[in-house]
Amino acid sequence: MSRAVAEVPFDDKEAELLSGGVPRGFKALTTATSKLVKAGWLVKGRSGWTATEEGVRAVRAFPDADRFATAMLTGEPVPEQPLEVEHAPQSPEQLSEEAQFTPTEDPTPPDAAVDLDVTAAEDSAGDEAWLDQPQSVALSGDFDPILGEAGHWSTDTRELQLSYEADENLWRQTLQLPAGTYQYKILVNGSWDENYGRFGVRNGANHELHLLSDSAVTFRFDYSTKDITTS
């Protein structure tokens, strides 16, 4: 993903942050590429994305972008061997000495994987990690000491929104908190309809945080376990 963004940077619209702190373009790209996953042409893992053998053949077989998209959406079979452009034969005089030499055996196995310089997936369970994530995650609790009334068990306070960290598949936010005791829960998609307390229990007891001195506290939420850690 980072390489794709480096090659084709987000424009102003795509760079806008959604409520969960994720750039609009990041979500658009991730959602759009889910069609490649369904077609069997791409595998998404926690440590990277990689094209399948069929996906590599599809790129060669359908070099035109519109043709590629149509084949992907319609499920058109990918040819085993894409058609190649025929060239007029050259006479020996037109070939270099090196080109005239024909090895008796091709040293490259016919089914060798093409190196796309993309890190292979380590865990198939994380193939579509982003697709399993909510639109937004936020803290809600008695954060009055830093935010006043707006921080008292609110559902939409910007400072309490967690940002999605794609490389760790976690949601994160750091707050500078004065000494004291805090109670809070995790809200998903800006509503109490889905909230998590201690031990990742839905509608469970409040999390508690006890600070003996003013501290910068980082909250990390793992949506797969529904629990949160602080440091």
Determine the fraction of residues in helical runs and give it as a percent range: 10-25%
Question: Low-confidence spans: pLDDT under 50, at least 5 residues?
Answer: 111-127
Helix run count: 7
Cα radius of gyration in angstroms:
26 Å
Q: Note the quaternary state here.
A: single chain
**Most strands sheet:** 4 strands, antiparallel
Total strands: the figure is: 10
Summarize model confidence as the mean pLDDT.
76
The secondary-structure element order is: HHHEEHHHEHEEEEEEE
**What is the structural class?**
alpha+beta
Bulk shape: elongated
Question: If you had to describe this structure to a student in words, what would you say it looks like?
Answer:
By secondary structure, the protein is α+β, with helices and mostly antiparallel strands. The protein has helices spanning 2-7, 24-32, 34-39, 53-61, 65-74, 97-100, 144-147; strands at residues 42-45, 48-51, 137-141, 163-165, 170-177, 180-188, 191-196, 207-211, 215-222, 227-230. Strands 3, 6, 7 and 8 form a four-stranded antiparallel β-sheet that branches. It has a four-stranded antiparallel β-sheet with strand order 4-5-9-10, with no helix packed on it. It starts with a helix and ends with a strand. Residues 111-127 have low confidence and may be disordered.
